[in-house]
Amino acid sequence: MKRVAILISGGGSNMVALLNSMTGDHPARPVLVASNDPGAGGLVKAAAAGVATAAVDHRPYGKDRASFEAELVQHLEAAAPDILCLAGFMRVLTPDFVRRFEGRMLNIHPSLLPKYPGLHTHQRAIDAGDAEAGCTVHEVTAVLDDGPLLGQARVPVLPGDTADSLAARVLVQEHRLYPAVLRRYAAGDRRPVLL
Ligand code: GRF
Q1: How confident is the model at residue 69 (pLDDT cuts 50, 70, 90)?
Q2: Of these residues, 58, 109, 122, 175, which one is catalytic?
Q3: Which of 68, 77, 145, 186 is 20 to 30 Å from 162 by CA-CA measure?
């Protein structure tokens, strides 16, 4: 059975979808949900689901990412995850941190990578007149929002779409895609899931 830790920064809807999927014959179980924001709504949801939680406030560390990560790594090492899932985790990780978890760290990004790495992905798809948008799960490497693709889901961009209406349509697919990818990945299968 694989041990999964999940990093979040906010409400954690993707995290909840992952937790809800790791039951029955799923090859993994959650061991920790951690956040860089002690006030993240997702921590309450994880605790209510009976999963251990931890919070390391990044703000007192200012620009000192390495010291922030050193405290975070203490919690992660105590949980000893086989797989680390970034789910709406909004801190950019240092190359040292990435090296520590490389080959077993996943992220979900709300665009059809390699299109639109970074922020404001939905508005950029609308401004570009794209017919399709979506989300991507990839292995994390030292290059932001890059790394081997593990899954993608596509949605139409509809006339009159705003960034919010498109984000809501994509989020529904995120909650299908990430659990499907994690189930396959935890079984040692890196073939991309395409929805
Ligand atoms: C999601 O759209 C995810 O792709 C992005 O941040 C959003 C977070 O959602 N990285 P949640 O915190 O999982 O609800």
Answers
A1: very high
A2: 109
A3: 145
171: nearest Cα among 31, 16, 38: 16
pLDDT confidence of residue 173: 98
Question: Residue 73 — pLDDT band, cuts 50, 70, 90?
Answer: very high
CB atoms within 10 A of CB 60: 10
Quick: pLDDT tens for 28-51. 999 999 999 999 999 999 999 999
Active site residue 122: no
pTM of this prediction?
0.97
Atom of ligand 1 nearest to the CA of 135: 4
120: alpha, beta or left? (left if phi > 0; alpha if psi -120 to 50) = left
The CB of 88 under 6 Å from ligand 1? The reply is yes
In DSSP notation, the chain reads -EEEEEEESS--HHHHHHHHHS-TT-SEEEEEEEES-TT-HHHHHHHHTT--EEE--SGGGTT-HHHHHHHHHHHHHHH--SEEEESS--SPPPHHHHHHHTTSEEEEESS-TTS--SS-HHHHHHHTT-SEEEEEEEE--SSTT-S-EEEEEEEEPPTT--HHHHHHHHHHHHHHHHHHHHHHHHTT--PPEE-
